[in-house]
Structures are given as C-alpha cells and as structure tokens.
Design brief:
Layout lengths: L1 E4 L6 H9 L1 H4 L5 E3 L4 H10 L4 E5 H8 L5 E10 L3 E5 L12 E4 L4 H12 L8 E4 L5 H6 L5 E5 L2 H7 L3 E5 L8 E7 H6 L1 H20 L1 H12 L11 E3 L2 H9 L7 H15 L7 H4 L7
Parallel strand pairs: 1-2, 1-3, 6-7, 6-8
Antiparallel strand pairs: 3-10, 4-10, 4-11, 5-8, 5-9
Helix pairs in contact: 1-9, 1-10, 4-12, 9-10
C-alpha cells in the first residue's frame, strides 16, 4: 500500500505505526511518503502512482471530480482551529478591500477564506485571491508578498515565529474541515484485507500516541524532520472508530460527512466543477464496520 500524507498532526498515527513496525507485523507492506506539496500529491494519486492519500476532505472531493473511482475510508480528525488564516499585522482585518489573500484555490482552503470574507460582509471579488501551497505561506507573509494566508501546522507555527498572527481559523467554522484517508477504487477491490489491516493498525497507533504523547512526538519528529516541541494536537480532534461510524452515517448535522460533502459540492458547483460526487460514490464505511 503506497500512502502519501501531508504534514498534519491528524495523519501522524501512520508515521508512528510505520516507525514501530506495526504494519509489517500485521503483514502489510506500507510505503509511506510525505512529499510536502499537496498539489503534487493529489496529481500522483489521480495518475495512479500511489494507492492512498491523507488529505482534507475538500481536496479529496475535488480529486473525485477528475477521478471517479475513489473511496473515503477513514476520517482521521476534524480541524477545530488547526487550519488558520494569518497576517503579519492584525489591523489588516479592519479593511480587507483589495488585500492579497493566499490559499490553495479550488480546495477547502478557498472555502475557509470565503467563510472569513462572509464574516466581514465581503466576497471574493472584493479581494485578490492568490493560489499558493500551504508550505509557502510563512515566507510569503514575512516577505510582504501576501497580506493574509491560509495554512496549517507545522506551517502555522513557523509563521508565528516570524511574527504572524492568527486572524481566523477552522475553530470559527465547526465541522467544515474533516481530514480523511482516501484510496483508489482499484486498491479497495483488489486488496480489501490490506485496508482492514491498515485501519486496525491506525487506531492502535492513534491510541498509543494519546497514551504516550511525548514518546510519540519523538518518533514523529525523527521521521518528519520537525522539532518534538512543535508537534501538537491543539486545534485538532482525532477521530476514533466510533466517531468515524457516527460521522459516516450522520446525514442530518453539519458534522456528518454527507452534510459536509453537500457543502463542498455546492461550493464546487458554483466554482464551475462539472462533476460532483454523491455520498454513495465516495463514502465507504464497510471497512470500519
């Protein structure tokens, strides 16, 4: 199983399990990759050179518009402040007209920015939206090339070290940004046992990390090149197996995946994406059960 993940704490149970050798113990040969560039990772997944990705749900929905054979098998976490919009000077929020705001356009980051603009009774036409990768935001803010930028940890921490301040976050938009594991439909059909093993080991590693947080952070730091003290679950709610089952089957509240999918579908339709998925096309809970 070839898995690529963003640098995001919600995905680190895979890093811990890989470091511990738990996947191999269960008979799963997992190849873990952290490219540090979401767009490249999504492109590789669409091209079929990797089997699975750990990304924000909104990004997975966007990919499914180009790659119909995709299955979301797990909600890793919900961003509850971990995604942030930052500025070098918070006074910029007093007048957003014409400001340069950076995010990954067409994905969940743009939807977060649009929610920010709604809070200020403004639209995307009132500002200059700039397409940037999350990893570039700290430098673009500190160099004055952006007035505001959306990113996530560890890049939020880097931006703060350079003097940036959080002016809006996913804590202001409950339920908007769940993070997920998606696999190709081909892999799901040809390797169902591998998927079951992956989820079994995932939840084992997730609980172990919560029980051994400092030790877990050392393992994560060793694998990702971060400093252990910069690894945090602040603003992130890890999702257990029980949380997952509730989210997959909750079609009535804003925290349920079907309703979140509807929000993103509405956004993508307005943005001109022709094909948007139905819940039954992408949400696969059978391996959780």
């Amino acid at each position: 199983m070839r898995l690529s993940i963003d640098l995001w704490p919600g995905y680190y149970p895979a890093v811990i399990a890989d470091q511990k050798g738990w996947f191999k113990e269960e008979g799963l040969d997992l190849v873990l990759n952290m490219p540090g560039n979401t767009d490249k990772m999504l492109a590789r997944f669409s091209a079929g050179t990797i089997d699975a990705i750990a990304v924000a749900f909104g990004d997975a929905i966007l990919v499914s518009s180009q790659m119909s054979d995709l299955s979301v098998i797990l909600v890793t976490d919900e961003s509850a402040g971990g995604d942030a919009v930052l500025a070098m000077d918070s006074q910029v929020m007093n007048n957003l007209k014409g400001k340069r705001i950076g995010t990954n356009l067409g994905g969940f980051g743009e939807l977060l920015i649009r929610k920010l603009l709604q809070h200020h009774n403004m639209s995307a036409q009132d500002v200059n939206l700039v397409n940037v990768d999350a990893s570039k935001v700290p430098h673009l803010l500190s160099s004055g090339k952006l007035d505001l930028g959306h990113t996530w940890n560890p890049y939020v921490g880097l931006a703060k070290e350079q003097g940036a301040q959080v002016v809006f976050s996913s804590a202001d938009t409950p339920g908007l940004i769940p993070d997920i594991i998606a696999i190709s439909g081909e892999f799901r059909r040809t390797h169902p046992e591998a998927v079951k093993i992956f989820l079994k080991v995932w939840f084992k590693a997730q609980q172990w990390w919560l029980d051994h947080f400092i030790e877990g952070n050392l393992l994560i730091a060793e694998s990702t090149g971060q400093r252990p003290e910069n690894i945090s679950l602040d603003g992130i709610r890890l999702m257990s197996r029980e949380d997952n089952l509730a989210s997959f089957h909750d079609s009535t509240t804003e925290h349920g995946l079907p309703q979140v999918l509807k929000s993103y579908n509405d956004f993508y339709i307005r943005s001109g994406v022709i094909r948007v998925p139905a819940p039954n096309d992408v949400l696969v809970s059978e391996f959780l059960e």
